[in-house]
Automatic annotation (TrEMBL):
The keyword NADP applies. The gene is hom. Residues 353-424 form the ACT domain. Pfam families: ACT, Homoserine_dh, NAD_binding_3. This is Homoserine dehydrogenase. Gene3D superfamilies: 3.30.70.260, Dihydrodipicolinate Reductase, domain 2 (3.30.360.10), NAD(P)-binding Rossmann-like Domain (3.40.50.720). CDD domains: ACT_HSDH-Hom. NADP(+) binds at L9, G10, F11, G12, T13, V14, G15, A16. Transmembrane segments: none annotated. NCBIfam families: PRK06349.1 (NF004976).
Length: 433
């Protein structure tokens, strides 16, 4: 048996989950791998709060840098979050040749290229399974099980907080803010939770997945991002009646060498497996050119599920270090090319859900339909709802596939019509065809 001395930076939700997991199953891990994981140091600015876990005397410190520079520590686990001090800690550890394990998708999305290159230059590794899909081993699947595939498409529900909010809005009809407060209390949400509800956390994860799928660091600017802020309960009811469910989706595809990437609330058919992913669960639906369709499902957030992914990486990093492996595939796969080509967002073809409010006047609908026709947008279905007391009628339209640029132009023209009485709402409809 060989011991590996672990230094953990950040003893919050995930840090405490990692320590709890190692305390519970460390002996099992040692039996399976011959490596004994020893939590030698834990740094946190707050070492007073009781995390419900007892650690040995002298393990806790407020000085993270002293853990990084301690020659007795073999590997560093970065769980402080954010992109500033976390970047400093990560680079400092890598420069000292210490492998770093992180759950920090924001850090990788904003500074991934610098971090992967620093790891490579220092003949060591950065391991980040917990950064995407929490406890789901999705990155390990991509870099090992699917290594022989060209990735055609990835659809992901990657944010536990948003999926939890959408699920409870649909099931219980509760207000958005009340459910968000519960997600925060359960430890799912980021600080601040705007990162979750504005889709930015999902975009952070999408760029990590896309980088691994296509072999180059992907900048956040390449990922047009919309979240679920302001989503009305009426939209959830309308889509439900039409046989769809709203999910915040990361969409990653490759067409003729160009990568399409976006994060947006989208309608998915209730009959599709991804529609049944509820609460804080995440799922990633990957199509490879050899394997065809695969799907990965599990808890995307929370103390122990995320801790599980970090622990998996700790054991892999320990094994790589003890075997003198040097730079792991989690680094080399992200740096195969310097950059990727991206589809122009306007050229992307998609179906859409559109909700308008129209004055109840003869000819209102005809004006709208003329605009769609002029933009080559073909209509799959139209439902006019009951008139409001105001004399306006909500109209729900599902379209066939058309170009994004045509949708943008058509919606602007409809919005400017005198018979249109509220800003049109538009969401992608994804039928996975
Ligand atoms: N909570 C979750 O379910 C998941 C979180 N993550 C990621 O894991 C990371 C950690 O998240 P949480 O544990 O939820 O955050 P948290 O806020 O619960 O814990 C962070 C801890 O780091 C400590 N800290 C901050 N600055 C420090 C410094 N300079 N030195 C030492 N300690 C410092 C804080 O006092 C706090 O205890 C973040 O990058 C987050 O995005 C990833 C997947 C799931
Ligand atoms: N805030 C994130 C935490 C995990 O990455 C989420 O809700 O998914
Ligand atoms: Na994961």
């Amino acid at each position: 048996m060989k011991e590996i001395k672990i230094g953990i930076l950040g003893f919050g939700t995930v840090g405490a989950g990692v320590v709890e997991g190692i305390q519970k199953n460390g002996a099992l891990m040692a039996e399976r791998t011959g490596i004994v994981p020893v939590v030698a140091k834990i740094a946190d600015l707050d070492i007073e709060t009781d995390r419900g876990i007892s650690v040995g005397e002298g393990v806790l410190t407020t000085d993270a840098m002293s853990v990084i520079t301690d020659d007795g520590i073999d590997l560093i686990v970065e769980l402080v979050g954010g992109t500033s001090i976390a970047r400093t800690f990560t680079l400092e550890a890598l420069k000292r040749g210490k492998p770093v394990i992180t759950a920090n998708k924001a850090l990788l999305a904003d500074h991934g290229e610098e971090i992967y290159k620093t790891a490579r230059e220092n003949n060591t590794g950065i391991y980040y399974e917990a950064s995407v899909g929490g406890g789901i081993p999705i990155l390990r699947s991509q870099r090992a099980g699917l290594i022989g595939n060209r990735i055609e498409s990835i659809y992901g529900i990657l944010n536990g907080t948003c999926n939890y909010i959408l699920t409870r809005m649909e099931r219980e009809g509760l207000p958005f803010d009340e459910i968000l407060a519960d997600a925060q209390a359960l430890g799912y949400a980021e600080t601040p939770p705007d990162l979750d509800i504005d889709g930015i956390d999902t975009a952070h994860k999408a760029v990590v997945l896309a980088s691994m799928a296509y072999g180059a660091p992907v900048p956040m600017e390449a990922c047009p991002t919309k979240g679920i802020r302001g989503l009305a309960a009426s939209e959830i009811r309308n889509t439900e009646e039409l046989g769809y469910r709203i999910k915040l989706l990361a969409i990653i595809k490759e067409n003729h060498g160009e990568v399409e990437l976006s994060v947006e609330p989208a309608l998915v058919p209730k009959t599709h497996m991804i529609a049944s992913v509820s609460d804080s669960f995440n799922a990633v639906f990957v199509k490879g050119d050899i394997v065809d369709d695969t799907m990965y499902y599990g808890r995307g957030a929370g103390r122990l599920p995320t801790g599980s992914a970090v622990i998996g990486d700790i054991m892999e990093a320990a094994s790589d270090k003890l075997n003198g492996k040097g730079v792991p595939v989690s680094v080399t796969m992200m740096l195969q090319k310097s950059e990727l080509d991206y589809c122009a967002p306007g050229s992307i073809e998609k179906r859409c859900y559109i909700r308008l409010c129209l004055e109840d006047k003869p000819g209102s609908m005809a004006k709208v339909m003329n605009i769609f026709g002029a933009h080559n947008i073909s209509i799959a279905s139209v439902v006019q709802k009951e008139l409001h007391e105001s004399g306006c009628a909500p109209v729900v339209i599902l379209t066939q596939k058309a170009k994004e640029s045509e949708f943008v132009a058509a919606i602007a023209e409809i919005d400017a019509l005198d018979v249109s009485t509220c800003t049109p709402i538009r969401m992608r409809l994804e039928d996975f065809e």
